[in-house]
Amino acid sequence: MKENKSENNLNKTPHKMARLAWPKAKYGVIIAIIIIIIVNLIYYKDHFLSFFK
Prior knowledge:
The chain has about 55 residues and is mostly helical. The protein has a domain at about 25-53. Helix content is about 60%, strand content about 0%. The mean pLDDT is about 80.
């Protein structure tokens, strides 16, 4: 009986974290890709601008 109860609790959100609004995973992936692109554009700005000269 205890094993079955521990399996049920394994997938539940912890009590203190249950009140937070968790975004969907796909939005997190999209935001991460956008951040990576923006950082790379800032970092390699001179390289990208050299294509247009």
